[in-house]
Amino acid sequence: MYFIFFTGTAGAGKTTIVKEFRDYLIDQEMDVATINLDPAVENLPYTPDFDVRDYVDAFEVMQRYQLGPNTSLIVSIDLVLSKAGEIKKEIDEIEANYVLVDTPGQVELFAYRDTGRLISSLIAGENRAVNVFLMDSFLAKEARSYVSLLLLSSAIKFRLNLPQVNVLSKADLLSEKELENIKSWGEGEKIVDDLGTIDEYSFELVKTIVENLDSPPIPVSSVTDFGFDELYAEVQKVLAGGEDYLTEENNPRI
Amino acid sequence: MYFIFFTGTAGAGKTTIVKEFRDYLIDQEMDVATINLDPAVENLPYTPDFDVRDYVDAFEVMQRYQLGPNTSLIVSIDLVLSKAGEIKKEIDEIEANYVLVDTPGQVELFAYRDTGRLISSLIAGENRAVNVFLMDSFLAKEARSYVSLLLLSSAIKFRLNLPQVNVLSKADLLSEKELENIKSWGEGEKIVDDLGTIDEYSFELVKTIVENLDSPPIPVSSVTDFGFDELYAEVQKVLAGGEDYLTEENNPRI
Protein backbone atom coordinates (compact mmCIF):
# COMPACT_ATOMS: atom_id res chain seq x y z
CA MET A 1 0.00 0.00 0.00
CA TYR A 2 1.34 3.40 -1.00
CA PHE A 3 0.29 6.69 0.60
CA ILE A 4 0.28 9.88 -1.47
CA PHE A 5 -0.23 13.05 0.59
CA PHE A 6 -1.28 16.26 -1.12
CA THR A 7 -0.17 19.49 0.59
CA GLY A 8 -0.01 23.15 -0.42
CA THR A 9 -1.15 26.63 0.54
CA ALA A 10 -4.87 27.45 0.81
CA GLY A 11 -6.44 27.44 -2.64
CA ALA A 12 -3.61 25.54 -4.35
CA GLY A 13 -6.09 22.84 -5.43
CA LYS A 14 -5.45 19.93 -3.05
CA THR A 15 -9.03 18.65 -2.89
CA THR A 16 -9.57 18.90 -6.64
CA ILE A 17 -6.37 17.05 -7.51
CA VAL A 18 -7.22 14.28 -5.02
CA LYS A 19 -10.51 13.73 -6.84
CA GLU A 20 -9.08 13.98 -10.35
CA PHE A 21 -5.95 11.96 -9.67
CA ARG A 22 -8.11 9.28 -8.05
CA ASP A 23 -10.26 9.12 -11.19
CA TYR A 24 -7.11 9.01 -13.33
CA LEU A 25 -5.69 6.07 -11.35
CA ILE A 26 -9.02 4.24 -11.48
CA ASP A 27 -9.01 4.69 -15.27
CA GLN A 28 -5.62 2.93 -15.21
CA GLU A 29 -7.36 0.09 -13.36
CA MET A 30 -5.59 0.84 -10.10
CA ASP A 31 -7.12 0.12 -6.73
CA VAL A 32 -7.42 3.52 -5.03
CA ALA A 33 -8.74 4.82 -1.71
CA THR A 34 -9.02 8.40 -0.44
CA ILE A 35 -8.64 9.94 3.00
CA ASN A 36 -9.77 13.39 4.08
CA LEU A 37 -7.67 14.81 6.93
CA ASP A 38 -9.13 18.32 6.83
CA PRO A 39 -11.59 18.87 9.71
CA ALA A 40 -12.63 22.23 8.21
CA VAL A 41 -13.41 21.31 4.61
CA GLU A 42 -16.97 22.30 3.71
CA ASN A 43 -17.62 20.41 0.48
CA LEU A 44 -15.78 17.41 -0.94
CA PRO A 45 -16.21 16.52 -4.63
CA TYR A 46 -15.45 12.87 -3.78
CA THR A 47 -16.62 10.42 -1.13
CA PRO A 48 -13.61 9.61 1.03
CA ASP A 49 -12.99 6.09 2.38
CA PHE A 50 -12.01 7.78 5.62
CA ASP A 51 -13.19 11.22 6.69
CA VAL A 52 -11.62 12.90 9.72
CA ARG A 53 -14.81 14.98 10.09
CA ASP A 54 -16.50 11.86 11.47
CA TYR A 55 -14.27 12.45 14.51
CA VAL A 56 -13.63 16.21 14.50
CA ASP A 57 -15.62 18.77 12.54
CA ALA A 58 -14.29 22.33 12.77
CA PHE A 59 -17.75 23.80 12.25
CA GLU A 60 -19.18 21.82 15.18
CA VAL A 61 -16.12 22.61 17.33
CA MET A 62 -16.66 26.28 16.64
CA GLN A 63 -20.32 26.18 17.63
CA ARG A 64 -19.98 23.87 20.60
CA TYR A 65 -17.14 25.80 22.23
CA GLN A 66 -18.20 29.25 20.94
CA LEU A 67 -14.85 29.83 19.28
CA GLY A 68 -13.75 32.25 16.58
CA PRO A 69 -12.72 30.91 13.17
CA ASN A 70 -8.98 30.94 13.82
CA THR A 71 -9.11 29.28 17.22
CA SER A 72 -11.61 26.67 16.04
CA LEU A 73 -9.28 25.63 13.21
CA ILE A 74 -6.33 25.23 15.57
CA VAL A 75 -8.36 23.44 18.24
CA SER A 76 -9.80 21.09 15.60
CA ILE A 77 -6.40 20.16 14.24
CA ASP A 78 -5.12 19.54 17.76
CA LEU A 79 -8.23 17.50 18.66
CA VAL A 80 -7.53 15.13 15.77
CA LEU A 81 -4.49 13.95 17.68
CA SER A 82 -6.65 12.87 20.62
CA LYS A 83 -8.50 10.56 18.23
CA ALA A 84 -5.30 9.16 16.69
CA GLY A 85 -5.85 5.63 17.98
CA GLU A 86 -9.36 5.27 16.56
CA ILE A 87 -8.34 6.96 13.30
CA LYS A 88 -5.37 4.63 12.84
CA LYS A 89 -7.60 1.61 13.47
CA GLU A 90 -10.15 2.68 10.89
CA ILE A 91 -7.51 3.52 8.28
CA ASP A 92 -5.79 0.17 8.81
CA GLU A 93 -8.94 -1.45 7.47
CA ILE A 94 -8.60 0.30 4.12
CA GLU A 95 -7.31 -1.96 1.39
CA ALA A 96 -5.97 -0.38 -1.77
CA ASN A 97 -2.78 -0.02 -3.78
CA TYR A 98 -2.80 3.73 -3.53
CA VAL A 99 -4.24 5.83 -0.74
CA LEU A 100 -4.57 9.52 -1.61
CA VAL A 101 -4.57 11.81 1.42
CA ASP A 102 -6.19 15.25 1.35
CA THR A 103 -4.68 17.55 4.01
CA PRO A 104 -5.96 20.67 5.84
CA GLY A 105 -6.66 23.79 3.78
CA GLN A 106 -3.74 25.63 5.30
CA VAL A 107 -0.45 23.75 5.01
CA GLU A 108 0.88 25.60 8.05
CA LEU A 109 -1.69 23.95 10.31
CA PHE A 110 -0.73 20.55 8.99
CA ALA A 111 3.03 21.06 9.03
CA TYR A 112 3.63 23.19 12.11
CA ARG A 113 1.20 21.72 14.61
CA ASP A 114 2.24 18.33 16.01
CA THR A 115 -0.85 16.67 14.56
CA GLY A 116 0.15 16.70 10.89
CA ARG A 117 3.51 15.09 11.41
CA LEU A 118 2.31 12.52 13.91
CA ILE A 119 -0.88 11.58 12.08
CA SER A 120 0.92 11.29 8.74
CA SER A 121 3.60 8.99 10.12
CA LEU A 122 0.98 7.06 12.06
CA ILE A 123 -1.34 6.42 9.13
CA ALA A 124 1.42 5.68 6.64
CA GLY A 125 2.94 3.30 9.20
CA GLU A 126 5.43 0.95 7.59
CA ASN A 127 4.11 1.71 4.10
CA ARG A 128 5.96 3.88 1.63
CA ALA A 129 4.66 7.42 1.38
CA VAL A 130 5.29 10.52 -0.70
CA ASN A 131 4.19 14.11 -0.28
CA VAL A 132 3.00 15.91 -3.42
CA PHE A 133 3.47 19.62 -2.75
CA LEU A 134 1.27 21.88 -4.86
CA MET A 135 2.71 25.19 -6.02
CA ASP A 136 -0.18 27.39 -7.12
CA SER A 137 0.54 28.56 -10.70
CA PHE A 138 -1.17 31.84 -9.95
CA LEU A 139 1.58 32.60 -7.41
CA ALA A 140 4.43 30.73 -9.11
CA LYS A 141 4.37 32.80 -12.28
CA GLU A 142 6.19 35.59 -10.49
CA ALA A 143 9.91 34.95 -9.90
CA ARG A 144 10.12 35.88 -6.20
CA SER A 145 7.02 33.85 -5.40
CA TYR A 146 8.34 30.90 -7.38
CA VAL A 147 11.48 30.84 -5.23
CA SER A 148 9.38 31.44 -2.13
CA LEU A 149 7.21 28.40 -2.89
CA LEU A 150 10.28 26.21 -3.51
CA LEU A 151 11.61 27.29 -0.12
CA LEU A 152 8.24 26.64 1.49
CA SER A 153 8.24 23.21 -0.15
CA SER A 154 11.66 22.48 1.34
CA ALA A 155 10.50 23.76 4.73
CA ILE A 156 7.56 21.35 4.64
CA LYS A 157 9.83 18.51 3.54
CA PHE A 158 12.15 19.03 6.51
CA ARG A 159 9.26 19.13 8.90
CA LEU A 160 7.22 16.16 7.59
CA ASN A 161 10.29 14.08 6.68
CA LEU A 162 8.63 12.48 3.65
CA PRO A 163 10.11 12.29 0.15
CA GLN A 164 8.49 15.03 -1.87
CA VAL A 165 7.40 15.81 -5.42
CA ASN A 166 6.68 19.40 -6.47
CA VAL A 167 3.74 20.09 -8.73
CA LEU A 168 2.76 23.32 -10.49
CA SER A 169 -1.00 23.15 -9.96
CA LYS A 170 -3.66 24.81 -12.12
CA ALA A 171 -1.18 25.00 -15.01
CA ASP A 172 -4.14 25.42 -17.41
CA LEU A 173 -4.46 28.99 -16.06
CA LEU A 174 -0.99 29.88 -17.39
CA SER A 175 -0.40 31.29 -20.86
CA GLU A 176 2.07 29.35 -22.99
CA LYS A 177 4.62 32.10 -22.44
CA GLU A 178 4.18 32.05 -18.65
CA LEU A 179 4.59 28.28 -18.60
CA GLU A 180 7.76 28.45 -20.71
CA ASN A 181 9.08 31.12 -18.37
CA ILE A 182 8.50 29.00 -15.26
CA LYS A 183 10.04 25.98 -16.96
CA SER A 184 13.17 27.97 -17.76
CA TRP A 185 13.46 28.87 -14.05
CA GLY A 186 13.14 25.21 -13.13
CA GLU A 187 16.00 24.39 -15.45
CA GLY A 188 18.17 27.00 -13.78
CA GLU A 189 18.10 29.70 -16.43
CA LYS A 190 17.57 33.38 -15.83
CA ILE A 191 15.89 33.07 -12.45
CA VAL A 192 18.45 35.41 -10.89
CA ASP A 193 17.91 37.97 -13.68
CA ASP A 194 14.17 37.86 -13.11
CA LEU A 195 14.48 38.23 -9.33
CA GLY A 196 15.90 41.74 -9.53
CA THR A 197 17.80 43.03 -6.51
CA ILE A 198 18.41 40.44 -3.81
CA ASP A 199 20.79 40.26 -0.87
CA GLU A 200 23.71 37.86 -0.78
CA TYR A 201 22.07 35.29 1.49
CA SER A 202 19.07 35.10 -0.83
CA PHE A 203 21.37 34.83 -3.83
CA GLU A 204 23.21 31.85 -2.33
CA LEU A 205 19.91 30.19 -1.43
CA VAL A 206 18.52 30.58 -4.95
CA LYS A 207 21.73 29.19 -6.42
CA THR A 208 21.57 26.14 -4.15
CA ILE A 209 17.92 25.52 -4.90
CA VAL A 210 18.31 25.83 -8.65
CA GLU A 211 21.52 23.80 -8.84
CA ASN A 212 20.27 20.98 -6.65
CA LEU A 213 16.65 20.62 -7.66
CA ASP A 214 16.26 16.94 -8.53
CA SER A 215 13.52 17.63 -10.99
CA PRO A 216 11.63 20.83 -11.74
CA PRO A 217 8.01 21.18 -10.58
CA ILE A 218 5.64 19.19 -12.81
CA PRO A 219 2.97 21.37 -14.48
CA VAL A 220 -0.39 19.72 -13.87
CA SER A 221 -4.01 20.61 -14.52
CA SER A 222 -6.87 18.94 -12.68
CA VAL A 223 -9.23 20.34 -15.32
CA THR A 224 -7.60 18.67 -18.34
CA ASP A 225 -5.56 15.94 -16.55
CA PHE A 226 -2.55 17.54 -18.28
CA GLY A 227 0.64 16.33 -16.56
CA PHE A 228 -0.96 13.42 -14.69
CA ASP A 229 1.18 10.88 -16.61
CA GLU A 230 4.36 12.70 -15.55
CA LEU A 231 3.11 13.04 -11.99
CA TYR A 232 2.31 9.35 -11.82
CA ALA A 233 5.74 8.44 -13.19
CA GLU A 234 7.52 10.70 -10.69
CA VAL A 235 5.46 9.42 -7.76
CA GLN A 236 6.24 5.85 -8.83
CA LYS A 237 9.95 6.66 -9.02
CA VAL A 238 9.95 8.11 -5.52
CA LEU A 239 7.84 5.31 -4.03
CA ALA A 240 10.14 2.75 -5.63
CA GLY A 241 12.98 4.37 -3.67
CA GLY A 242 14.51 6.14 -6.64
CA GLU A 243 15.37 9.09 -4.45
CA ASP A 244 18.76 8.77 -2.82
CA TYR A 245 18.96 9.40 0.89
CA LEU A 246 22.33 9.97 2.44
CA THR A 247 23.04 7.36 5.05
CA GLU A 248 25.05 8.15 8.14
CA GLU A 249 28.09 6.57 6.50
CA ASN A 250 28.20 8.63 3.31
CA ASN A 251 26.83 11.83 4.79
CA PRO A 252 29.53 14.46 4.22
CA ARG A 253 29.97 16.94 7.03
CA ILE A 254 29.84 20.68 6.66
CA MET B 1 8.77 56.53 10.83
CA TYR B 2 9.87 52.92 10.99
CA PHE B 3 7.57 49.94 10.54
CA ILE B 4 8.30 46.68 12.35
CA PHE B 5 6.16 43.75 11.19
CA PHE B 6 5.86 40.65 13.36
CA THR B 7 5.18 37.38 11.51
CA GLY B 8 5.33 33.69 12.41
CA THR B 9 3.29 30.51 12.54
CA ALA B 10 0.12 30.29 14.61
CA GLY B 11 0.99 30.37 18.30
CA ALA B 12 4.53 31.71 17.85
CA GLY B 13 3.70 34.68 20.05
CA LYS B 14 3.21 37.60 17.64
CA THR B 15 0.53 39.42 19.61
CA THR B 16 2.35 39.04 22.93
CA ILE B 17 5.65 40.33 21.57
CA VAL B 18 3.93 43.32 19.96
CA LYS B 19 2.55 44.29 23.37
CA GLU B 20 5.77 43.62 25.31
CA PHE B 21 8.12 45.15 22.75
CA ARG B 22 5.87 48.23 22.63
CA ASP B 23 6.13 48.56 26.43
CA TYR B 24 9.90 48.05 26.21
CA LEU B 25 10.26 50.83 23.61
CA ILE B 26 8.04 53.15 25.63
CA ASP B 27 10.27 52.49 28.66
CA GLN B 28 13.17 53.68 26.47
CA GLU B 29 11.14 56.86 25.89
CA MET B 30 10.42 56.03 22.28
CA ASP B 31 7.30 57.19 20.50
CA VAL B 32 5.49 53.96 19.52
CA ALA B 33 2.24 53.07 17.76
CA THR B 34 0.68 49.65 17.11
CA ILE B 35 -1.36 48.26 14.23
CA ASN B 36 -3.45 45.11 14.25
CA LEU B 37 -3.78 43.53 10.79
CA ASP B 38 -5.41 40.29 11.97
CA PRO B 39 -9.15 40.30 11.20
CA ALA B 40 -9.59 37.09 13.21
CA VAL B 41 -7.86 37.91 16.49
CA GLU B 42 -10.24 37.46 19.41
CA ASN B 43 -8.48 39.25 22.27
CA LEU B 44 -5.72 41.81 22.11
CA PRO B 45 -3.67 42.57 25.25
CA TYR B 46 -2.99 46.08 23.91
CA THR B 47 -5.16 48.83 22.39
CA PRO B 48 -3.97 49.27 18.81
CA ASP B 49 -3.77 52.70 17.18
CA PHE B 50 -5.23 51.08 14.10
CA ASP B 51 -7.35 47.93 14.16
CA VAL B 52 -8.24 46.19 10.89
CA ARG B 53 -11.27 44.68 12.65
CA ASP B 54 -12.93 48.10 12.41
CA TYR B 55 -13.14 47.33 8.68
CA VAL B 56 -13.24 43.51 8.50
CA ASP B 57 -14.00 41.20 11.41
CA ALA B 58 -13.67 37.49 10.61
CA PHE B 59 -16.28 36.57 13.20
CA GLU B 60 -18.85 38.91 11.64
CA VAL B 61 -17.91 37.76 8.14
CA MET B 62 -18.51 34.18 9.21
CA GLN B 63 -21.92 34.93 10.66
CA ARG B 64 -23.11 37.31 7.97
CA TYR B 65 -22.20 35.03 5.05
CA GLN B 66 -22.79 31.75 6.90
CA LEU B 67 -19.25 30.55 6.21
CA GLY B 68 -17.15 27.83 7.80
CA PRO B 69 -14.05 28.81 9.82
CA ASN B 70 -11.55 28.21 7.02
CA THR B 71 -13.46 30.06 4.31
CA SER B 72 -14.27 32.96 6.61
CA LEU B 73 -10.57 33.46 7.39
CA ILE B 74 -9.65 33.52 3.71
CA VAL B 75 -12.57 35.74 2.74
CA SER B 76 -11.72 38.15 5.58
CA ILE B 77 -8.09 38.45 4.52
CA ASP B 78 -9.14 39.05 0.93
CA LEU B 79 -11.78 41.60 2.00
CA VAL B 80 -9.09 43.66 3.74
CA LEU B 81 -7.71 44.46 0.31
CA SER B 82 -11.01 46.03 -0.76
CA LYS B 83 -10.62 48.48 2.13
CA ALA B 84 -6.98 49.26 1.33
CA GLY B 85 -7.63 52.92 0.44
CA GLU B 86 -9.43 53.73 3.69
CA ILE B 87 -6.92 51.72 5.73
CA LYS B 88 -3.97 53.54 4.17
CA LYS B 89 -5.62 56.91 4.86
CA GLU B 90 -6.18 56.10 8.53
CA ILE B 91 -2.68 54.70 9.03
CA ASP B 92 -1.13 57.78 7.38
CA GLU B 93 -2.50 59.79 10.27
CA ILE B 94 -0.47 57.83 12.81
CA GLU B 95 2.53 59.70 14.08
CA ALA B 96 5.26 57.74 15.86
CA ASN B 97 8.89 56.78 15.52
CA TYR B 98 8.14 53.10 15.53
CA VAL B 99 4.99 51.41 14.31
CA LEU B 100 4.67 47.78 15.40
CA VAL B 101 2.47 45.69 13.12
CA ASP B 102 0.71 42.56 14.36
CA THR B 103 -0.10 40.20 11.44
CA PRO B 104 -2.71 37.43 10.94
CA GLY B 105 -2.49 34.35 13.16
CA GLN B 106 -1.44 32.17 10.30
CA VAL B 107 1.58 33.48 8.41
CA GLU B 108 0.47 31.60 5.30
CA LEU B 109 -2.65 33.77 4.97
CA PHE B 110 -0.54 36.90 5.26
CA ALA B 111 2.27 35.80 2.97
CA TYR B 112 0.52 33.77 0.28
CA ARG B 113 -2.66 35.74 -0.31
CA ASP B 114 -2.15 39.00 -2.24
CA THR B 115 -3.41 41.05 0.70
CA GLY B 116 -0.39 40.65 3.00
CA ARG B 117 2.16 41.75 0.48
CA LEU B 118 0.10 44.60 -0.92
CA ILE B 119 -1.11 45.92 2.42
CA SER B 120 2.36 45.74 3.97
CA SER B 121 3.98 47.66 1.11
CA LEU B 122 1.06 50.09 1.08
CA ILE B 123 1.14 50.92 4.77
CA ALA B 124 4.91 51.07 5.02
CA GLY B 125 4.94 53.31 1.94
CA GLU B 126 8.22 55.18 1.57
CA ASN B 127 9.20 54.42 5.17
CA ARG B 128 11.78 51.86 6.13
CA ALA B 129 10.38 48.55 7.31
CA VAL B 130 11.64 45.29 8.74
CA ASN B 131 9.96 41.95 9.27
CA VAL B 132 10.64 40.19 12.57
CA PHE B 133 10.02 36.48 11.94
CA LEU B 134 9.22 34.49 15.09
CA MET B 135 10.53 30.95 15.30
CA ASP B 136 8.61 29.18 18.06
CA SER B 137 11.16 27.71 20.51
CA PHE B 138 8.86 24.78 21.14
CA LEU B 139 9.33 23.75 17.49
CA ALA B 140 12.87 25.05 16.99
CA LYS B 141 14.44 22.85 19.66
CA GLU B 142 14.31 19.91 17.27
CA ALA B 143 16.95 19.99 14.50
CA ARG B 144 14.70 19.22 11.51
CA SER B 145 12.12 21.77 12.65
CA TYR B 146 14.83 24.36 13.26
CA VAL B 147 15.96 24.03 9.65
CA SER B 148 12.35 23.95 8.51
CA LEU B 149 11.62 27.24 10.27
CA LEU B 150 14.72 28.89 8.78
CA LEU B 151 13.52 27.79 5.34
CA LEU B 152 10.02 29.05 6.08
CA SER B 153 11.56 32.34 7.19
CA SER B 154 13.45 32.60 3.87
CA ALA B 155 10.27 31.69 1.97
CA ILE B 156 8.42 34.55 3.70
CA LYS B 157 11.31 36.92 3.04
CA PHE B 158 11.22 36.21 -0.69
CA ARG B 159 7.49 36.71 -0.83
CA LEU B 160 7.20 39.88 1.29
CA ASN B 161 10.47 41.40 0.05
CA LEU B 162 11.28 43.07 3.36
CA PRO B 163 14.58 42.84 5.23
CA GLN B 164 14.13 40.27 7.96
CA VAL B 165 15.31 39.48 11.48
CA ASN B 166 14.81 35.99 12.93
CA VAL B 167 13.79 35.65 16.55
CA LEU B 168 13.57 32.55 18.71
CA SER B 169 10.37 33.33 20.57
CA LYS B 170 9.35 32.02 24.00
CA ALA B 171 13.01 31.25 24.79
CA ASP B 172 12.10 31.17 28.50
CA LEU B 173 10.46 27.78 27.82
CA LEU B 174 13.82 26.28 26.83
CA SER B 175 16.17 24.62 29.27
CA GLU B 176 19.69 26.03 29.35
CA LYS B 177 20.91 22.95 27.49
CA GLU B 178 18.27 23.27 24.78
CA LEU B 179 19.14 26.93 24.28
CA GLU B 180 22.86 26.15 24.02
CA ASN B 181 22.06 23.43 21.52
CA ILE B 182 20.04 25.78 19.30
CA LYS B 183 22.74 28.43 19.55
CA SER B 184 25.35 25.93 18.38
CA TRP B 185 23.19 25.19 15.32
CA GLY B 186 22.92 28.91 14.58
CA GLU B 187 26.70 29.15 14.63
CA GLY B 188 26.99 26.32 12.11
CA GLU B 189 28.14 23.52 14.40
CA LYS B 190 26.79 20.03 14.46
CA ILE B 191 23.46 20.76 12.79
CA VAL B 192 24.13 18.12 10.12
CA ASP B 193 24.99 15.54 12.79
CA ASP B 194 21.76 16.28 14.61
CA LEU B 195 19.65 16.07 11.46
CA GLY B 196 20.30 12.37 10.94
CA THR B 197 19.74 10.95 7.47
CA ILE B 198 18.98 13.57 4.82
CA ASP B 199 19.05 13.53 1.02
CA GLU B 200 21.65 15.44 -0.95
CA TYR B 201 19.38 18.37 -1.88
CA SER B 202 18.50 18.90 1.78
CA PHE B 203 22.17 18.64 2.74
CA GLU B 204 23.16 21.37 0.27
CA LEU B 205 20.31 23.56 1.47
CA VAL B 206 21.32 23.22 5.12
CA LYS B 207 24.91 24.00 4.25
CA THR B 208 23.89 27.15 2.39
CA ILE B 209 21.60 28.30 5.18
CA VAL B 210 24.14 27.71 7.92
CA GLU B 211 27.07 29.20 6.02
CA ASN B 212 25.21 32.30 4.89
CA LEU B 213 23.07 33.19 7.86
CA ASP B 214 23.90 36.83 8.59
CA SER B 215 23.16 36.42 12.25
CA PRO B 216 21.62 33.53 14.16
CA PRO B 217 18.04 33.82 15.47
CA ILE B 218 17.89 36.03 18.58
CA PRO B 219 16.48 34.21 21.64
CA VAL B 220 13.75 36.38 23.10
CA SER B 221 11.20 36.06 25.88
CA SER B 222 8.12 38.25 26.07
CA VAL B 223 7.68 37.09 29.66
CA THR B 224 11.04 38.33 30.98
CA ASP B 225 11.98 40.79 28.18
CA PHE B 226 15.10 38.64 27.79
CA GLY B 227 16.74 39.43 24.42
CA PHE B 228 14.82 42.66 23.78
CA ASP B 229 18.05 44.71 23.85
CA GLU B 230 19.58 42.47 21.17
CA LEU B 231 16.39 42.53 19.13
CA TYR B 232 16.24 46.31 19.29
CA ALA B 233 19.90 46.59 18.25
CA GLU B 234 19.42 44.22 15.31
CA VAL B 235 16.23 45.96 14.16
CA GLN B 236 18.05 49.30 14.34
CA LYS B 237 20.92 47.92 12.28
CA VAL B 238 18.58 46.67 9.58
CA LEU B 239 16.46 49.83 9.55
CA ALA B 240 19.63 51.91 9.27
CA GLY B 241 20.37 50.02 6.08
CA GLY B 242 23.09 47.84 7.54
CA GLU B 243 21.94 44.94 5.42
CA ASP B 244 23.61 44.85 2.02
CA TYR B 245 21.39 44.40 -0.95
CA LEU B 246 23.01 43.36 -4.19
CA THR B 247 22.34 45.92 -6.88
CA GLU B 248 21.90 44.95 -10.50
CA GLU B 249 25.52 45.97 -11.17
CA ASN B 250 27.22 43.79 -8.56
CA ASN B 251 24.78 40.89 -8.69
CA PRO B 252 26.84 37.86 -9.71
CA ARG B 253 25.11 35.47 -12.05
CA ILE B 254 24.64 31.76 -11.45
From TrEMBL, chains A, B:
Key words of the record: GTP-binding, Hydrolase, Nucleotide-binding
GO molecular function: GTP binding; GTPase activity
Record's keyword annotation contains Electron transport: no
Classification via InterPro entries: Gpn (IPR004130), P-loop_NTPase (IPR027417)
Pfam family, any one: ATP_bind_1
Family to which the UniProt record says this protein belongs: Belongs to the GPN-loop GTPase family.
Protein name (record): ATP/GTP-binding protein
Organism placement in taxonomy: Archaea, Thermoproteota, Thermoprotei, Sulfolobales, Sulfolobaceae
